[in-house]
Amino acid sequence: MKINFPISQGQPVVTEERREQIRREKTATQFEEIFARHLVKEISKNTFRLDKATGGMGHGSDLYREFITEALAGQLAEQRTLGVADLLMKYWERQDNAVDFLSRAGPDESVDESDDQSDKPSH
């Protein structure tokens, strides 16, 4: 015998819209981390370089630099310090608003570009 519980059992219901927002936030943060990694790598490219004639750290220096780059890039992205993730989220929000606006506009509200002469220079 199967018993159905009409009351939620404490599991939050996540709508498709919220799922999409979470996916976008993760994607934006990942993109910011990639950007931060490249930025940190470029900024620190000469920091860990030692003179080969003096017997520098060699490969260990590269590993240390890579570790620092990854750690710093991760922190920058997590805190959204650079603002790249926020810009992406705003861009996607504007795109959604534009799509919503266009989907609500009926065929009578479409813009006919041939009637718009304001951008064309007069002779």
Radius of gyration: 26 Å
Level of helix content? 55-70%
Largest sheet: none
Got a strand count? 0
Give the CA-CA distance, first to last residue.
84 Å
Keywords summarizing the entry:
123 residues, mainly alpha, 3 helices, 56% helix
Could you please describe the fold and organization of this structure?
- Helix 1 runs antiparallel to helix 2 (59-78) and helix 1 (16-43) runs antiparallel to helix 3 (84-104).
- The model has no long low-confidence stretch (mean pLDDT 78).
- The radius of gyration is 26 Å and the shape is flat.
- It contains three helices and no strands.
- It has a domain at 20-102.
- The protein has 123 residues and is an all-alpha fold.
Kindly summarize this structure in a few lines.
With 123 residues, the protein is an all-alpha fold.
Write the layout of secondary structure elements.
Elements: H1 16-43, H2 59-78, H3 84-104
